[in-house]
Each structure stands twice: as structure tokens, then as C-alpha cells.
Amino acid sequence: MKNSNILxxxxxxxxxxxxxxxxxxxxxxxxILDVFEITESYVMRWDKISYKFYNTSxxxxxxxxxxxxxxxxxxxxxxxxxxxxIESLNRMVGIDK
Length: 97
Hints:
The strands form 2 sheets. This protein has a two-stranded antiparallel ribbon with strand order 1-2. A two-stranded antiparallel ribbon has the order 3-4. Helix 2 (46-54) packs across helix 3 (60-66). The radius of gyration is 14 Å and the shape is globular. The chain has helices at 3-8, 46-54, 60-66, 86-92; strands at 12-13, 16-17, 32-37, 80-84. 30% of the residues lie in helices and 15% in strands. By secondary structure, the protein is of the alpha+beta class. It contains 4 helices and 4 strands.
């Protein structure tokens, strides 16, 4: 997810970017890549989970939003998260790759 792609999908009001408008839309069909149980080495580390499944840490924010965590630091041992396909995440943030 490149910042420029995300900014291109924001609403522009009077030539100003509306940062209150959500860039993430979970209300579209998605495919699940894995169901992942958090172990000690992944506690509070969405970046490591992103890297494990997508070979980049760029999807860490999208992963915690997808799993409906309000606080990214609340990821604990034993939590079970869904890992959507990278194509699904891209659709949810409005990026076609």
C-alpha cells in the first residue's frame, strides 16, 4: 500500500484531503488466507505478522483494522486472527493490484 495510492482514494473537499473519511472497507467480499494463533514472538507485532504472510510489513495497519482491534498493542498470546489474502486487503483499502 503506497501512501500515494491511499491519498488518491480519499475524498477531496474544496481541494483539501478529508482524513476523517475511512480508507478501509471491510463490507466487501474477502478471502481468508489463514487463521493464525498469536504466539509470544508475535505479541503486539502486526508488522511481523504482515511480513510472515505478505513478505512486507506494509499491511500491518490493514491487518489490525480487518481483525477489528482498536488498539494495535492489544494483540496477546492466544488471540486468534484472520489473515485475508493480499488481494482482499488491497480491495478493502481501494487499491487494485
